[in-house]
Each structure stands twice: as structure tokens, then as C-alpha cells.
Amino acid sequence: MEQLQTEKKSLNIKKMCLQKKNRGIISANTSDSSYGKLSIALSILFIFSSFLLSAQEAETPTYPNFKVDGTLKNKFEYASKTNMSRFSVRNSRIGVAGNINPYSAYRVQVELSNEGKFSVLDLSGTLKPIEGLSLTLGQTSIPLFNSYIVTPATMMFANRAFLGKYFLSTRDLGFLAKYDFLLGVIPARLEFGVFNGNTINDPVWKKNMSYGGRIELGNMQGFRMTAKIYDYPNDETTHFLFYGADLRYEQNNWKVETEVMKRESKTEFHTDLLSYYLQGAYTIPVRTKMFEFVRPAVRWDAIDGQPEVGGFDVNRLTTGIGFGFNNERFSSILRLDYEWYMVNHEMDIFSLNDEMDSDKFTLELLFTF
């Protein structure tokens, strides 16, 4: 009897050991599975990137084709008024654009982290029925802002100009038509779009759509000017009319850009806004181990919400210097900017925190591909 009890105890001990071993195997397999999925994802990304580089090297276009682009923008900021500072990943964008055939194209772009938030930026398809004409349907940019003011990869400074930040979202769901042609010997473009007039990733039903257009003369080398107007009936309390014009000149290593825009409220629930900027930069070639150029830049911009009171409510002077390199597929720039705010009257758009209208030092590292 004692021998039988001893054998039962021995059997129970063996079962317990076997269960612990199995649990360890399951835990290890779970861990291995997670690492395996990560390895597979990285491998796919590597193969995808290698295929992309090979495709980009081809001289003759083949269909369908695609091109991957991306932006990684990391920042450190110090606000002198509050003696506060912060690190942030301001943007981490990745996109794919391509052509299905000579007459149709597509664009997809996502924001992996805009100060910690994920969002889909572009989701559109484009038809090109005749030379110079493109018809885009989906989520895309509205014909109001210049890309070099609102797109992180092409901005002159770490922080956007006032009119590119506080006026309106740069994208919406809708339809956009573009037509490129020559006005004599001057390149010209007409744009017209109809949109939901709401926000991205939110396809609401609307009785009154937003619509607007833009005319562009010239190109990015030499003189370029645009004039635009955009009607934005959002809801019963929010209805804006935007209009403005801009002018820029770029030649060799330097460029100058200026723009003025007004947001006119059609309801009594919001005030009008008027803003402008004047900015310029000069690129100095250098030969160092890490950098190919040095780019000093300066900007003056202002914004006003009280037209009946003389002067602009807030003025800002921004100076900066960038150290960067460019090659065929990748570019990088390390920026050091300082902003001086001159506040004549407090504005609600700066009321989120005290750092918004504080003198500010910004260190930015930007990679684009």
C-alpha cells in the first residue's frame, strides 16, 4: 500500500514537471512568434526597398510602377518665456505614388506619428484623359496652400508660417481638376476642386460643399505667382471664405517667397483672420564629412484677428541655419531656428498653452527620401 502511494506521488510530480515544461515551451514559442513576425516585416520592407531602388534605376517607364517617399522629422524645443522644453517626433510620413498606365495614377500617404497620432493623409486616384489634364478623386490637398509652406519635406523652417498652421486643414475628401498649359511662353496651371468641407477621414453628408480654385503662372525656377479663392461652409456656425496671392523667385542658390491670405467669416461666431509672410534663404555649398551645404534663412510673418484695431496682433521674426546634404534618393538637414514673438494683442489661437507664443529655440533633424 505504501509502495502504491509512493508511485502515485512520483507520477504526480512527473505530471507537474511536464506541465511546467509545456508552459515554458508555449511562452518561448509566443516570444519567438513575436520576434518572427517582426523579422518577417523587416525582411519584407528590405526586399520592398531593394525592389524600389532597382525600379527607380530603370530609365524607360514601365507600367504599373510605383515610388515610395517618406519624411522623418524630430525636434527639440525650448520656450524662454516659461523655461519649458520638450522632445517630439513631429512627423513620420511614408507614402506610395505610381502609375497604373499612362492615363491613370494613384497616391497613398500615411502619418505614422504626428505628435503621437496616426492618420491617413492621402488616398486618391487620378485619371489623365488628355495631355495636361488630371482629374483626382479621393482624399487629397485642397487648392489653397503652397506645398513649400505646409509640407515638412520642403519647408524652409522647422515651424510653419502662421497662415499655413492656423487657417485651415490642408486636405479634404473630394474632387480636384488640374490643367497645365502654356500662356505664350509662360507655364500656367488652373485648378478647381469640390470637397466635403469637413476634415480628412470623415466622409460626412453635406448640403453645401466647399469649392475653390487657383491660377498659377511660372514655375519653381525663376518667377512664380498664384492667386486663389476657397469657400468653406462647414456648418451653421462655421463658414469661411479664403482668398489670397503669393509670389516667389528662385535662382541658383537663393530664393525669396511672400504670401498674403485672408480668412473672412460669414457668421458671427468667428472673427476674420489676415496673415502674411516674407521669407528667404541662401544655400552655401561646403565640403565636409557630414554636410554638403549650409543654408541661412530668415522669415517675418504676422497674423491679425482684429481688423478694426491698427497693426497686427502678433508678429514673429524667425532666423535659422541649416546643415544638410542631398543625393539622388535621400536628403537630410539639421536646423537650428530661433523665433521672436511680438504680441500686441492676445489671440485665442495661441491660448492652448503658454509656449505657443513664447520666444522659442528649435533644433530639428529632418530626413526625406
Description:
With 369 residues, the protein is an alpha+beta fold. The protein folds into 2 domains: 1-60; 61-368, Beta Barrel (Porin). The chain has 3 helices and 17 strands. The protein has a 16-stranded antiparallel beta barrel with strand order 1-2-3-4-5-6-7-8-9-10-11-12-14-15-16-17. The longest helix has 56 residues, at 2-57. It is globular and about 55 Å long. The protein starts with a helix and ends with a strand. Mean pLDDT is 87; it is low at 1-48 and 53-58.
CATH architecture field of the largest domain = Beta Barrel
Strand arrangement, major sheet: 1-2-3-4-5-6-7-8-9-10-11-12-14-15-16-17
The total strand number stands at 17
Q: Using the coordinates shown, work out and report the CATH topology of the largest domain.
A: Porin
Helix content: 10-25%
Mean pLDDT: 87
State the assembly state of the protein chains. single chain
User: Main sheet, how many strands, which sense, barrel?
Assistant: 16 strands, antiparallel, barrel
Count of distinct structural domains: 2
